[in-house]
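Hi F.,

I've been meaning to write this up properly since the lab meeting, where we talked about keeping a consistent format for the predictions we share between groups. The idea is simple: the sequence comes first, exactly as it goes in, then the structure tokens exactly as they come out, then a line or two of notes. No screenshots and no reformatting. I'm using this chain as the first example so we have something concrete to point to.
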Amino acid sequence: MAVFFFAASFPGPATAQDLRAERDRLSAHIQAKPEDDEATYRFVVIATELRDYEAGVGALERLLMFNPNLSRARKELGFLYARLGNWELSAQHLRAARDSGTLDAVQLAQIDAQLPDVEKRAQPNRLSVRLHTGLRAQSNANFFPANNLFQLGGVGLLSGGAQRGDVNTFQLVNAAHDYEFGNQRGDQMETRVTAYATQQFNLPQYSVALFSASTGPRFYMPQGVFETLSVRPYVTGAVTMLGSSNYLNTGGAGASLRADLSPDVWIEPGAEWRSLWVEPLRGPYFGFSPYATISTLATGDAVTGYVSGAWSLLDNLRLEGRVGYTRANAFDAVQSSDQVDAQAMLRVEVDPPHPIFARRWTIAPYARFTHLAFDAPNPIVSPFVPRRDAAWTYGIMLDAPMTPMFGFAGNLEFSRNDSNLPNFRTQNVSVTFGPTAKF
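Output, unedited:
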């Protein structure tokens, strides 16, 4: 529902047609009167909404030819060059506008919010870090079946316990490092690192810690059909803790091919192989519990094929999506499975409630569907019925920058797993909120 609400809140075909008509009218006007700065600014706003950045650059360049001291025009020109990926020219214009001494506090705040990122993108060796911490509340923190029913060996049982809500603190770190090789194609080494940890207040056995990383070169390929075409082979790995014990370790490699079909659309198919090692549960049978085999994850390997992409419908509206298929081969045959996963997100950038907040805020409704099918029945749960799960997740995210470095982010999410076995039927509502920082 959220996706349809936000889609209905932005211009449809008729409005976009009106914008194009107004752009054409203003274009004719500033061609006849190129010194009309207010008409030029209005033309640039409309051209930016329509993602016609080159037209906006041309109009501002003509305006500066008649009056090189227009700092606002230089500021807008710097922002447009950033959208075109010309980071060095963008930084030059933004610095000149900032140092002119003629801009008001709001315009200076806009430059200060964007200039550090622009200057960083102009460097061949770039490191970006984003931190997010805060509180998360869940209605079903122990992932208990929503109906309190279990099957054990095919026999239905009513549990003596129930799902429990809980609150936890969390810390999330995302780091990205790019190092350009210095050739004309723009090839570079890309490294991505994620670290995440939670501390449950009442259920410490469900506290988690995750560290994952991937690294590999991106090579740009000569072509004439797409805007850009690049291939990225990489290696990847992850370590996960559950409670105070090591739970899951993975390592593998993959490759993806990204094609920018136009300035508004990109698509990236890829494939990945991972080896999985899951710490078995200790128990009374030969040192291990047979109930370890009811876990979704198991020691073995997994091969994933996927296609991701994005479409910028307007300057402030972008649709992102991903579809993937994973084949998991476990050492225990009853835990081998096929998984299909589809997800979509609509990123909507809105003006903040006060002009002093120079960056746009982002509201992003999203949805995800996962279908999981195991090869064979698990005799510990149900000897004759293979497990089938259909998991749905719906949510909405908010990212609200307050300064160039600090802000707040939140998330409201509902998830439901509709399994054919009562052991795995779950529901959960979670709310997350806390401060963010970027460097």
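Notes:
The chain has a mean pLDDT of 88.
The longest helix spans residues 13-32.

If this format works for you, I'll send the rest the same way.

G.
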